[in-house]
């Protein structure tokens, strides 16, 4: 039997390292496979930051300047500013090569085809090539989670596609002959945990307590998916075959964990793919989903797992067993945490909870100032 | 010109109220359209909570009980326990109607076909019909965000499909003739903001500064999508046509906001659909995305918007204008917030920031203990 930390370390040994290329428009929430360098200057060339008149320094000596041309956003700027002349430019437009500064139109008096400068500005109003992002700069690090900011950078440097890690595919199998007559719950809560981690769930269906059928389903699953998760068949009942099956077709990574609920969890490796076998009781299964699978899936997807914690007092003392970690579901009300657990076979034990109290292996009594992991 | 709060109130007046039915497996992250009541008892009938022997109270008087039958999970339990007899039952299996309690197998001594009870348990080990969720209970409220816990409830009460609010479809249009020659950024950052809010982005493309073409694109968009967002063409340049266009084909909801960056934002209503026109500068556009669109989209989708805040000191005093709200991008380092803003035309002004300092309309100087909205 392993501790919770040992189990997590084993599960976090599996990552999905395939590279795929995605459109920038589709890249939100993905993780960068490589460092990204800019191959261009941003902006690509000098631009105007205002609507106004492009002039040369020489032109400052003139009382009046003749407007010789107009450059709108998107127009080329292949002309030059001639002596005694200026050129009207728009915000964001290209500017003539010999532009020294741009006078905002509100700082000029315009009469027919000429302007008179009535006020200078401190800066030149030129958005210099490469000011935002210089060419060859490293703009994003490998393993960055692509959000709206990273997308802004990638778009600015002109990338249409980007290499990211492939999304881990998690196969889910529900085991148990009783599932033909009761409402099957675990595959649905586990599917949600997979989605919460941003991975791709694939439900393989419900399989009865048959060594042959379960074995066949798992052998097929490990060929196609990155991670396989089963629920049910892990106890010591007459028809709990999961441990026997995984032992015979693969290597056991750990058997049981020193944590409650969910102690009968075990994992194996079949054809290099991890297979995690959860207990069938609905609350135990979902607690294992939070405690072990969510961090595992995020890690497999190269993403960060972070618990959202609050501190609260428990409504009553909770007594735990030394050496066993307890994930104790609680309902928060007016800043007090009330026990929500009613039995590992009841979905309301966890579905009505707001958080899990993580009572560590060396704690035996908890009551005041307890850290609660919001779920 | 409206205040930031007034603008948000106007934008939050638009919600997407269409009802759609989705599979429970696909319901993660959706929002319940109706209150949900359970039409069944969970569990549907009495079950055993242990592997053991179902007995009647009368059987407690016997020294030995003969094992007359076995009920495995999924088997029917249509027999009765006869005097002097017991029936082997599995965890989660149905139990005979006249069962009074179940003795766990580890509390018995088994010899050939009989058992002797050596230890009693406090409880009956019967998982009574309806204990988890009684029939006709309200189990989930309308507008609940469907997470793994809600899915656990929905699955337990046997629902395969559920009615949810339809996902708002947000059309994105980029306006500006210059976009043919520079890397277009805003449609990509806005697409990401739409996804961040869990809505569905639809990119309509880039349209040049042409009244006819922009008008046509918007008229088409409002027929198909719930919200239309444009960027570019909102300033006072010669070819900034957006305000003129929306004024002519719809009603203006507000024109400009007392907040920086992003002051030129405005919105209108065309064919009852909201259209929000953002400035084209990449940093202003994304700040408006965070400040106004993210809350608007979440609200439209019947979801909650919550800022994640930290408190930090600024590296230098920030001076703001009275009556104007400032969204000031900062980079956090060792607990100090450094200014990240370099100009509204630079993506790095916002993409390199960790948060936005929300300097309210009545603050003119901020430095210590500043609330920073993590982005």
Structural class of chain A: alpha+beta
The total number of structural domains of chain A is: 4
Q: Give the percentage of residues in beta strands of chain A.
A: 25-35%
Report the biggest beta sheet of chain A as strand number plus sense, adding barrel if it closes: 6 strands, mixed
Distance, first to last CA of chain A:
26 Å
- CATH topology name of the largest domain in chain A, in short, is Molybdenum Cofactor Biosythetic Enzyme, Chain A
State the helix count of chain A: 7
Q: Using a beta-carbon cutoff below 8 angstroms, give the protein chain pair with the largest interface and the number of residues from each chain.
A: A-B, 77 and 77 residues
GO molecular function (chains A, B): molybdopterin molybdotransferase activity
GO cellular component, one term (chains A, B): cytosol
Domain MoaB/Mog (chains A, B): 171-299
Pathway (chains A, B): Cofactor biosynthesis; molybdopterin biosynthesis
Can you characterise this structure?
The structure is a homodimer of 375-residue chains. The first copy, chain A, has helices spanning 4-11, 148-156, 186-196, 211-224, 242-249, 282-300, 348-351, and strands spanning 19-23, 36-37, 47-48, 52-55, 65-71, 85-89, 101-104, 108-111, 114-117, 126-127, 138-140, 161-165, 169-175, 200-207, 227-231, 251-255, 259-260, 266-270, 273-278, 309-314, 318-319, 325-333, 336-339, 355-359, 365-366, 370-374. The relative contact order of chain A is 0.13. The first copy, chain A, has 375 residues and is of the alpha+beta class. The longest helix of chain A has 19 residues, at 282-300. The first copy, chain A, has a six-stranded mixed β-sheet, with no helix packed on it. In chain A, strands 14-13-15-19-18-16 form a six-stranded mixed β-sheet, sandwiched between helices. A five-stranded mixed beta barrel of chain A has the order 20-23-22-24-26. The first copy, chain A, contains seven helices and 26 strands. In chain A, a hairpin with a 2-residue loop joins strand 18 (266-270) and strand 19 (273-278). The first copy, chain A, folds into four domains: 4-17 and 166-300, 3-Layer(aba) Sandwich (Molybdenum Cofactor Biosythetic Enzyme, Chain A); 25-42 and 133-164, Alpha-Beta Complex (Molybdopterin biosynthesis moea protein, domain 2); 47-127, Molybdopterin biosynthesis moeA protein, domain 3 (Beta Complex), CATH 2.170.190.11; 309-374, MoeA, C-terminal, domain IV (Beta-clip, Beta Barrel), CATH 2.40.340.10. At the A-B interface, helix 2, helix 3, helix 6 and helix 7 of A face helix 2, helix 3, helix 6 and helix 7 of B.
């Amino acid at each position: 039997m392993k501790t919770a930390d040992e189990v997590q370390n084993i599960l976090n040994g599996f990552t999905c390292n395939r590279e795929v290329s995605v459109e920038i428009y589709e890249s939100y929430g993905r993780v960068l496979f490589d460092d990204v360098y800019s191959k261009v200057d941003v902006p690509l060339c000098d631009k105007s930051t205002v609507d106004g008149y492009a002039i040369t320094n020489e032109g400052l000596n003139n009382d009046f300047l003749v407007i010789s041309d107009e450059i709108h956003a998107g127009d080329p700027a292949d002309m030059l500013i001639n002596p005694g002349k200026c050129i009207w430019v728009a915000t964001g437009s290209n500017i003539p090569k010999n532009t020294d500064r741009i006078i905002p139109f509100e700082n000029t008096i315009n009469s027919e085809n000429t302007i008179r400068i009535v006020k200078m500005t401190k800066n030149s109003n030129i958005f210099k090539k490469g000011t935002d992002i210089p060419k060859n700069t490293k703009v994003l690090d490998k393993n960055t989670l692509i959000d709206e900011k990273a997308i802004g950078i990638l778009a600015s440097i002109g990338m249409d596609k980007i290499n990211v890690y492939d999304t881990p595919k998690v196969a889910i199998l529900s085991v148990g002959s009783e599932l033909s007559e009761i409402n099957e719950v675990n595959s649905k809560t586990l599917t949600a945990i997979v989605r919460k981690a941003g991975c791709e769930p694939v439900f393989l269906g419900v399989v009865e307590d048959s060594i042959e059928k379960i074995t066949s389903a798992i052998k097929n699953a490990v060929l196609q998916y990155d991670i396989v998760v089963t629920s049910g068949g892990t106890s010591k009942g007459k028809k709990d075959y999961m441990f026997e099956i995984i032992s015979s077709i693969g290597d056991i990574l750990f058997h049981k964990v020193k944590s409650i609920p969910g102690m009968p969890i075990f994992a194996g490796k079949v054809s290099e793919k991890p297979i995690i076998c959860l207990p069938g009781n609905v609350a135990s299964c979902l607690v294992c989903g939070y405690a072990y699978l969510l961090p595992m899936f995020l890690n497999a997807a190269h993403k960060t797992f972070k618990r959202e914690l609050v501190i609260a007092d428990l409504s009553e003392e909770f007594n735990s067993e030394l050496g066993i970690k307890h994930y104790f579901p609680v309902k928060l009300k007016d800043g007090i945490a009330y026990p929500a657990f009613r039995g590992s076979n009841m979905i309301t034990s966890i579905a009505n909870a707001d958080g899990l109290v993580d009572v560590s292996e060396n704690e035996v009594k908890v009551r005041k100032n307890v850290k609660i992991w919001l779920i």
